[in-house]
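Table S2 (text version). Query chain:
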Amino acid sequence: MEAFDRRTASAILLLLFAASESFAGEPVHQDLRLTLSPERHAVSAVDTVTFPQGFSAGEGGIRFALHGGLAPRPLTPGSRIEKTDGPAGDPPVETYRMFLPPGTRTVSLEYGGAIDHPLRQVGEEHARGQKETPGAIGPEGVYLTGGSGWYPRFPGKPLLTFRVEVRLPAGWGAVSQGEREIRETGDDGVRVAWESRVPQEEITLMAGRYTEYLHDAGKAKAMVFLRERDDALAARYLDATARYLALYEELIGPYPFPKFALVENFWETGYGMPEFTLLGPAVLRLPFIVDTSYPHEILHSWWGNGVYIDYGSGNWGEGLTAYLSDHLMKERQGAGAEYRQTTLQKYADYVLAGRDLPLTEFRSRHGSVTEAVGYGKTLMLFHMLRQSLGDETFRKGLRTLYRDHRFRTAGFAEVRKSFEEAAGQDLADRFDPWVARAGAPRIAVRSARAEPEGASFRLRASLEQLQEGEPFPVRVPLAVTLEGREAAWETAVEMTGKEARIDLLLPARPLRLDVDPGFDLFRRLSRGEIPPALTQAFGAEQVLILLPSGADEVWLDRWRKLAKTLSGAGPGRVEIGLDADVSALPADRSVWLFGRENRFLPRLTEGLVSYDSRIGEDSVLLEEKEFNRKGHAFTLAVRHPDNPELALLWIGADDIEALAGLGRKLPHYHKYSYLAFEGKEPANVAKGRWAVSDSPMTLHLPREDGSVSRVPMAALAPRKALVEAPDPPVRERTAPGGPGGRR
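Corresponding structure-token output:
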């Protein structure tokens, strides 16, 4: 999870003026002394800026940007400040020109005013409840990033070293990057100081009424800042921090910062900041977060905050981070192929015609389409590279990238060069088509036949790429199930054109051929390879939602509200109507059916038969588990009976109070085929994906007598995870510190 457009907002600040000044690649140092007044939403500050050796502002002065209304004033004798533009943008930013005495490299200025921007919905999918603010100082907490404009930003986005000293009301604490030098209380409140000696892209500052926890995790400190004391929760995160820091140091290289902290935010977020993650109160208490999203945020300390991303050439950092965290965690559980299948299904369901983009154009996630490309396609690019190079060379490439570009900016070109150095070969053909081109290959297998050849068997088949445009160079994995063998015969075919021949000499009769059975290739899956799921419904270009005309007015009103909420969860054009207004299900769009009284519900139940499931009068059977309809809500997806490329979705509920919660929750369960919820909240009690029984990437071959039996696929060779978790260093954990207290 990343801050929505946090870096984009920061970039907007710098676009407000031309970047003609040069800092020769050396960091600027800022020494900030702040007083925060949450009740007044205000900050007052003195900033002492030291420019690098050799810097000269010249007669034209030095330009900088600052949040509107902060009214900077010079403190250095002989210096002056002129306003040049603004306020403009979001947040409103004003630009200034500062004139310095000849030979001056250090200058001080003071400023102050209000920064108070309310939370607002952002992104394409409003049903996900994603909220953001460009900056806020208030009684509930303080949220300030580089994009907030709370300190002077200079053109060219120079790297920064800094010290931030903050005065706050009694009971408050503050978190920023670097090491904490001061934490003390007095009659006039709290004083906290953080210093970062390593160069950073921006300065972030969070504040609130925290209970603090500390744990030594090797050379770095693990820290937790909670808005309410919870020793058990803090212990889980401190232990996880030590564990994941050790894991990624082994895989990539030394952790680049003095600490990593979990900070509880005052609204629901999942943000990765330099040296800490900012999680909302409900998010951080979800039991699975500590072993799913949390390692993702820790890993950003290496990719994004340790090696900076050249966003102008495309954001490779999110995909690599997802691959080495989300995917790696699943891989270590033996579920890597399932994770990749889900990743590819998101691409198939969300990235429809006209929605795709090359990786060079991906900057940040702002909906399911950009997530499926920027995260999913990039993740699969690194997976294919690993499959091609082998684990050891891939790990060497990771370490090379980190070693050569720590605290420097890298784009796809630098990433490629690092892996080329590790592999000792040119990798342009394994990067460029996937990075510079939109789209994905669509692979089909044809004309498989097997013939005896002496004591062996010859298996021949053909592969085709069906997408429009040029072929993608791919190495297609194959698995052959042999008569009398428990283990599959595994190999791969290099495919550089639109067609390739499979010609295998096998030691026993082949019974079944599976193409890419582990979902190791980035490609557009066919519908037969993936189960119908909520992704297919939410990703549809056109949707018709049919409400039950037989429901009473109270229910109909609630169904309409749910329809409007879910209309913002990803689909394109949405039409809402009554089931009585149409004579048949349209075959040119996905259809969502609401309510147990819906007259088209029998069409959906027809599609459940092949999944051993049914909707009865009093119960719902989902595979092997049966639920009483009373007190439960359900969401089921099947293929549209008249167009298998589209989805038919049903949402039913026994309790009208459950509908509002369904509107909030369903977009977070997009990969599932069926869901069951209980109660008014409602709480999820069952979820699953229908089994795939007839994939077009599987061909069953005849036996000697001509008969064909649909045998299960033989066992694939077990795979090791890219890295196993080492034991974290054991350190004594300190007792929690009270809000704003001295330790």
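Notes on Table S2: The radius of gyration is 29 Å. The mean pLDDT is 92.
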